[in-house]
Amino acid sequence: MQQSSLCFGQSSEIIQLKDAEIELLPHFLPAEEGGNLFENLLEAVDWQSETIRIAGVERLVPRLTAWYGDKGASYTYSGVIHHPIPWSEQLLALKKRIEQVCQTSFNSALFNLYRDGRDSVAWHSDDEPELGAKPIIASLSLGAPRSLQLKHKKHKDLRHKLTLTSGSLLVMRGDTQRCWQHQVPKEPAITEPRINITFRNIVTNHK
Ligand SMILES: O=C(O)CCC(=O)C(=O)O
Ligand SMILES: [Fe+2]
């Protein structure tokens, strides 16, 4: 069941799932602006290929990443410490618009580049301690549409699938990270790239 509402003049859908607070603004960025931003970021971002260690074995992360943020907003993700790249003027302006819609502030953002459908992100929750107990995560998608799958951690029958199109903004709050995992599965038929930016707030003096 989905409800529609208006959020700052934007159409938005509440994704109604147990133990989750998820809202999708399908047209957060107008198509032309989203397309321009996508081209710009593809060129301008210093995309990195990272390795992670799983059970003692080094593996390449199946996507390219970059970490932007305020000074000091360092973040450990999949066992890798990310020191932030300072915001550009353009990214700072984008961050402000997203903060207004979400009514919160963000001090960092993880950028993912899925070069094509062979790139992916595996099941996880954005529940690292530095994000605090009930993190608000705002996820902007640009470029090729990709599926985001969600599964409840306890109730194995509870699953959901969304398609994240270019210019859409997905906002996750409350218990979403504590109770659910999400992934962007491989979709080998997709040949076009996609960029996803998740805006986050790193709590610097967490326990
Ligand atoms: O690409 C996406 O839509 C999700 C990315 C994600 O889950 C993450 O960066 O934590
Ligand atoms: Fe995530």
Describe the model.
This protein is of the alpha+beta class. Strand 7 and strand 8 form a beta hairpin. The longest helix is centred in the first third of the chain and has 14 residues. The protein is globular and about 45 Å long. The termini are far apart. The mean pLDDT is 93. The structure holds 2-oxoglutaric acid and fe (ii) ion. The site of 2-oxoglutaric acid has 12 residues, from strand 9, strand 11, strand 15 and strand 16. Fe (ii) ion binds next to loops.
What topology does this entry show?
Blueprint: E1 2-7, E2 10-15, E3 21-25, H1 31-44, E4 51-54, E5 57-60, E6 64-69, E7 75-77, E8 80-82, H2 89-102, E9 108-114, E10 121-124, E11 137-143, E12 146-152, E13 159-164, E14 169-173, H3 176-179, E15 180-184, E16 194-200
Antiparallel strand pairs: 1-2, 2-3, 3-14, 4-5, 6-9, 7-8, 9-16, 10-15, 11-14, 11-16, 12-13, 12-15
Bound molecules: 2-oxoglutaric acid and fe (ii) ion.
Residues 110, 112, 121, 126, 139, 141, 148, 164, 182, 184, 196, 198 line the site of 2-oxoglutaric acid (AKG).
Helix content: 10-25%
Structural class: alpha+beta
The low-confidence parts are none
Q: Main beta sheet, described? A: 8 strands, antiparallel
Cofactors, ions and other ligands in the entry: 2-oxoglutaric acid, fe (ii) ion
GO molecular function: catalytic activity, acting on DNA; demethylase activity; dioxygenase activity; hydrolase activity; metal ion binding; oxidoreductase activity, acting on paired donors, with incorporation or reduction of molecular oxygen
Cofactor: Fe(2+)
Protein name: 2OG-Fe(II) oxygenase
Keywords: Dioxygenase, DNA damage, DNA repair, Iron, Magnesium, Metal-binding, Oxidoreductase
